[in-house]
Write a structure and sequence with these properties.
It is an enzyme of class 2 (transferase). With about 575 residues, this protein is of the alpha/beta class. The protein has 22 helices and 16 strands. It binds phosphoenolpyruvate (PEP) and magnesium ion.
């Protein structure tokens, strides 16, 4: 049995598909059989072309023509006699290994493109490196299957999965995944929960003991992976899967019900989404609204910045699907562990403390304004609320609101319709914002507490680092005190407060959050009905009494125990 972090609940049983770690390190070697080396290179190019053709077809089918074009450009490069010829010449003239000739030639070319004063050309540098890495992997015999092309049921084992890897997952084939790094709130975990497949993350180096085709039990509830289980364990787990299924079936009774306590305190249980498809899934699973639309996933699924029109269409579709229910759309939160290949950010020592979210948007007003204009234009199609992420001070909020005003002014001049009264809120996910939430509350319509980041910044614990994941704790008294303070400060100004971090769906904490007065709980779609069931079985007055007592406790363990003993 291998232990990791429980990142998405549920159980899966299937064979392991082990993704090899990408190693693009290349060592120069002198070769005497340089003709044969050149042949080896040409064969790798042919194999690369075959792979690309198949990827183009499947991408076209699943993700559309535009995405397929990226791979068409890669294929074009491998068909280019100048590019391939330059590498062959190097192998033959310098008598070096193919990997080295490929890497150095591609790097020279990529650096040349990067130096050009043209965004489009600069982005081609990434394509050259991509193609070069593909051929290097073939030469080294280290190819991975494309996740979108997986044909048989499996559990993916990998060092890490990028958001674009997870975006390709077909849950009928990929029954779950386990990774070496990452934690409860890394984005691969968030996506696993939104698709509804189990995931165990942050396993560490022990993950390397799992071999291709090992039979695995992935237990997302307990954060464990069992490799080649005996018959008894296998049968036990099959029994558990059946019980899980029955439990889920039982939750359906809450689908149309209100999120209301036994003594009539009504709150909202909403869903976090990352795409238009997720919105439909949210409604089908009983969400009363969207508490967080992570728009960066819209940007990640493209190979260039989405235009105003594309964004407008996506936001409009979500708003229309929600039929007047509240939809909080968060402006772009790129940076940290979320990257856009076409918008390179300089390497940073601390990306989570760096050029991220609103900081990037206030710096790149062109990107920010395109999104705000799209949002404003969509605002007439439903109950839209705009939310700014990573606000750390009042000045940033004012600047962001000023850009929004600028966009409104432009639309007025262009005689384009929008809702002038669209609500504007901020995420409280940085301790500095929580501490001055009294002043921030005066200048917003709502707050949404982003506990995923609030925890990492309050406790100074990287949400991605499994070595310190023991500190990443939903019950941390300092974090809970900040949350309590934020809710009080917002209510004093008559503003409502939601929570869209993963904590909102934690059953054990719902009584305390309810007692603090939280108005809206937004979570992964798969947790919505369970949370509603919990709320409907609680008394608000009892929950309120928990707060002063819990706030006096000094450790997470004490708070956890107190809640367990007090709430039956
Ligand atoms: C959060 O930080 O709690 C949050 C919801 O945002 P994200 O997880 O996208 O950083
Ligand atoms: Mg966040």
């Amino acid at each position: 049995m291998i232990k990791g972090i429980s990142a998405s609940s549920g159980i899966a049983i299937a064979k392991a598909l082990v993704l090899k770690e990408e190693d693009n390190e290349v060592i120069k070697k002198d070769v005497t059989q340089y003709e044969a080396e050149n042949e080896r290179f040409k064969e790798a190019v042919e194999k690369g072309k075959k792979q690309l053709k198949s990827t183009i077809n499947s991408t076209m089918e699943k993700l559309g023509e535009e995405k397929a074009k990226i791979f068409e450009a890669h294929l074009f490069m491998l068909d280019d006699p100048e590019f391939v010829g330059a590498i062959s010449s190097k192998i033959l003239a310098e008598k070096v290994n193919a990997e080295y000739a490929l890497k150095t030639t591609s790097e020279e070319l990529a650096s040349m493109f990067e130096a050009l004063d043209n965004d489009y050309m600069r982005e081609r540098a990434a394509d050259i490196r991509d193609v070069s890495n593909r051929i290097t992997r073939i030469l080294k015999g280290e190819e991975n299957p494309s996740i979108g092309d997986i044909k048989e049921e499996c559990i993916i084992i990998a060092k890490d999965l990028t958001p674009s890897d997870t975006a390709q997952i077909d849950k009928k084939k990929v029954l779950g995944f386990a990774t070496e790094i990452g934690g409860v709130t890394s984005h691969s975990a968030i996506i696993a929960r939104s698709i509804g497949i189990p995931a165990v993350l942050g396993i560490g180096k022990e993950i390397n003991t799992i071999k291709e085709n090992d039979l695995l039990i992935l237990d997302g509830d307990n954060g464990i992976v069992i490799v080649n289980p005996d018959d008894e364990t296998l049968n036990n787990y099959k029994g558990k899967m059946l019980k899980d299924w029955e439990f889920k079936k039982n939750l359906i009774q809450y689908k149309e019900a209100e999120s209301i306590t036994l003594d009539n305190r009504k709150v909202e249980v909403a869903a976090n989404i990352g795409s238009v498809t997720d919105a439909l899934n949210a409604i089908n699973n009983g969400a009363e609204g969207i508490g967080l639309f992570r728009t960066e996933f819209l940007y990640m699924s493209k190979d260039e910045l989405p235009s105003e029109k594309e964004q407008f269409n996506a936001y409009k579709e979500v708003l229309e699907k929600l039929k007047g229910k509240p939809v909080i759309i968060r402006t772009l939160d790129i940076g940290g562990d979320k990257k856009l290949p076409y918008l390179p950010i300089e390497q940073e020592l601390n990306p989570f403390l760096g050029y991220r979210a609103i900081r990037l948007c206030l710096d790149r007003k062109d990107i920010f304004k395109t999104q705000l204009r799209a949002l404003l234009r969509a605002s007439v199609y439903g109950n839209l609320k705009i939310m700014f992420p990573m606000i750390s001070n009042l000045q940033e909020l004012r600047e962001a609101k000023a850009v929004l005003e600028e966009c409104k002014e432009e639309l007025r001049k262009e005689k384009i319709d929008f809702n002038d009264k669209v609500e504007v809120g901020i995420m409280i996910e940085i301790p500095s914002a929580a501490i001055i939430s009294d002043v921030l509350a005066k200048e917003v319509d709502f707050f949404s507490i982003g506990t995923n980041d609030l925890i990492q910044y309050t406790i100074a614990v990287d949400r991605m680092n499994e070595k310190v994941s023991y500190l990443y704790d939903f019950f941390n008294p300092a974090v809970l005190r900040l949350i309590n303070m934020v809710i009080d400060n917002a209510h004093k100004e008559g503003k409502y407060v939601g929570m869209c971090g993963e904590m909102a769906g934690k059953t054990e904490l719902i009584p305390l959050l309810l007692g603090m007065g939280l108005d809206e709980f937004s979570m992964s779609v798969s947790s919505v009905l369970k949370a509603r069931g919990t709320i409907r079985n609680l008394k608000y007055e009892d929950c309120r009494k928990l707060v002063p007592k819990a706030m006096k406790l000094g450790t997470s363990m004490e708070i956890k125990k107190f809640l367990k003993d007090s709430v039956k």
